[in-house]
# Entry
Amino acid sequence: MESKKMQNTITYVFIDGNNLHLGAKSQGIELDYRKLRLYLTHKFNAKKAFIFIGYDPDRTYTYSRLVDAGFTLIHKPTVIYHESGKRQMKGNVDAELVLHAAAIEYDNYDKAIVFTSDGDFTCLFNYLAEKGKLERIITPTKFYSSLFQPLASYILPLKRITKMIQKD
# Structure
């Protein structure tokens, strides 16, 4: 149940989509994105939740399910390359996530929650914390960047909320 303080706070969620997907998978967590969205709404009064993800035309069904669950998708064009004889796809969303959290959406929210374990976001976290806007860093992987150590009070490991957000 959200506190009275959170009821009056507008919270936006910024999710590094691939980091969340791979981090959950590496810990044996099968995410139910609808449950995740409900958890964010009830616990943090999340008004908007963005997932930043590389665009793969073969995954349109997955994207529509995420939208149906209540997420706003921000797509990044992907680059296809071959590594060890395998076709790989990469869509680095770091810049888009930072731009949305620190500029495009900045004036629309009071608090931000960011899902990532990537140390590249430390400058964003420091900025949001300095401005009083950082609510939580939800770390999808078991291990996260050592650069997060000064921000330890904001960290919520995904594993701690697994029961509320995993598939039945």
Observations:
- The chain has seven helices and eight strands.
- The first strand starts at residue 11 and ends at 16.
- Helices lie at 4-7, 17-26, 33-44, 60-68, 94-104, 122-130, 162-165.
